[in-house]
Amino acid sequence: MKGHTHIAGGLLFAFLFNVPGYAIPMAVIGSTFPDIDLSFTYYIPPKGVKTTLFNTHRGITHHPAIVVFLFLLWVFLMNKYPQYKFYWDFLYGFWVGYLSHLVLDAMTKKGIPVGLGYYPRFSFKLMKTGGTGEKFVFGLIVVLLIGVIFLKANPQLVENVFSSFKGLIKVS
Ligand SMILES: [Zn+2]
Q1: pTM value?
Q2: Where in the sequence is the domain holding 95, given as residue range(s)?
């Protein structure tokens, strides 16, 4: 998955998970953060080097355990120090972005690690990074994003649609 797809995905998740506006930048950071491993690991390890969670792209930074840990940390802080919710919202935003990254990467063939090593890996096997599938997903995310932002900006519209549906049901 490319950076722009992850940023779009992070924004979409931020709106779907009700990340407060001031914490949305953290969702964007979280949505691109796991790929920092590109700067300190092999993209493809040289021959003879065993791939591990710590020397290859999509290793430890792409592990669902991190998502679980961030979530539990947020739950803990919210319960222990609810008066600082404002600060924990930034962690929540980061978590939502991080989650979106792993969900998107899990759609590609390469997948994400789910065990104690580079293997086993989990993948929905829907597309290849940078291929037509990813372009399609990017387009889809942008359309959904525009839709969600529009609906959030017009809560009255959503209510009107619901009540007219109710009206239709009553009439028939
Ligand atoms: Zn990634």
Answers
A1: 0.90
A2: 3-171
